Amino acid sequence: MTAFSDYFEAAILNWFRGTAFPAATGSVYASLHTAATTDAGGGTEVSGNAYARQAISKATGSWSAPGAGGNITNSNEVAFPAATPSGWGTITHGALWDASTTGNMILHGALTASKTINTDDVFRYPIGSLSITVA
C-alpha cells in the first residue's frame, strides 16, 4: 500500500496536537477495487458474487518486523473467496480498512499488476506481497 488515507493522516496529525488517536481494532480488512482509490476514499470496491473484505489480524505474527526502511509485509497469505456465480472484473487497487464493511480507509494503493477475476477465480495476496511503508 502506497498512501495513507486522509482519515489516517488527520489521525496522526491530531495525535501530535494532543488529541486522542482512534482506538485500535483487532484486525484490518483488505479490500479490492476495480478503479483507482484516493486519499479521500474513492475507487470502486468489488461487490456481490461472494466478495467480502478479508480480515488481517494485527497480531505480531501476522506481519513482519519493521525493517530499516520503515516497512512491514504480510506474514500469511490473504485469500478472498472464489468469485461466484460471476467474476469481479479487473482488480487494479487495494486498500486496508478499520471495519469489514463501510468504516474508514487507512491505506490504499495500486496493485503491482492488475488481475482479472473471472468466475471461480480466487484473488490472493501471497506472503510478503502486502507491503506497508512509513517513511
Describe the overall structure.
- The chain has one domain.
- It is about 10% helix and about 35% strand.
- The strands form four sheets. A five-stranded antiparallel beta sheet has the order 1-9-8-2-5. A two-stranded antiparallel sheet has the order 3-4. It has a two-stranded antiparallel sheet with strand order 6-11.
- The longest helix is centred in the N-terminal third of the chain and has 11 residues, at about 5-15.
- With about 140 residues, it is mostly beta strands.
- The protein contains one helix and eleven strands, in the order βαββββββββββ.
- The model has no long low-confidence stretch (mean pLDDT about 95).
- It has one helix at about 5-15; strands at about 5, 25-35, 35-40, 40, 55, 70-75, 80, 90-95, 105-115, 125, 130-135.
How are the secondary structure elements laid out?
Layout (H helix, E strand, L loop, with lengths): L2 E2 L1 H11 L10 E7 L3 E2 L2 E2 L11 E4 L13 E3 L4 E2 L9 E9 L7 E13 L6 E2 L5 E3 L2
Antiparallel strand pairs: 1-9, 2-5, 2-8, 3-4, 6-11, 7-10, 8-9
